[in-house]
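#dry-run=false #mode=assembly
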Amino acid sequence: EIVLTQSPGTLSLSPGERATLSCRASQSVSRNSLAWYQQKPGQAPRLLIYDASSRATGIPDRFSGSGSGTDFSLTISRLEPEDFAVYHCQQYGSSPNTFGQGTKVEFK
Amino acid sequence: QVQLQESGPGLVKPSETLSLTCTVSGGSIGIYYWNWIRQPPGKGLEVIGYIYYSGGTKYNPSLKSRVTMSVDTSKNEFSLKLKSVTAADTAVYYCARVREGYNSDAFDIWGQGTMVTVSS
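#status=ok
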């Protein structure tokens, strides 16, 4: 199965700053089939990005995804207070679908 | 809009069977693939497997020997059974819909999750 490694484990930033999160796959992700989710404490994950760079319905344009092959990233251009959360990447190009271990974006 | 709601016991004894149901409201269970995903406390997400509205299934090989999923289209719900549970199966269990009717894609709708603890 494809192992996804997210880095950093924790990102300490202030509102208004730019956040760049990384997701590296142990092998190439077929058709760039990679998604990003946001998860807040006590809540289910929320889909942000699919197919590596397509924003899900209702997601603000400060969220963007990029990458291909084995290296992907999620960028939040200017952090809003509600963006402080855990972010997960998921690949669905190979079975079984797998998730990364998550990156926590916390207040600096 | 479509909403998902998990239900089932919050406490299961070791070696017994965990049983959960996900009820789909606001839309039909038809034409979509439906997944079970779990998240142990403080850990990452793990896909357990999916079921199609017509009954076809695919399970994660790591859990395949213990998992059974079923669907009841008349009730607009689908279910998970995980047998021979241990403490390692303690987790929040989510049901989720695969987007666009594909069997493998991102999960666009999630239930709120239900915590299941395995303990005697």
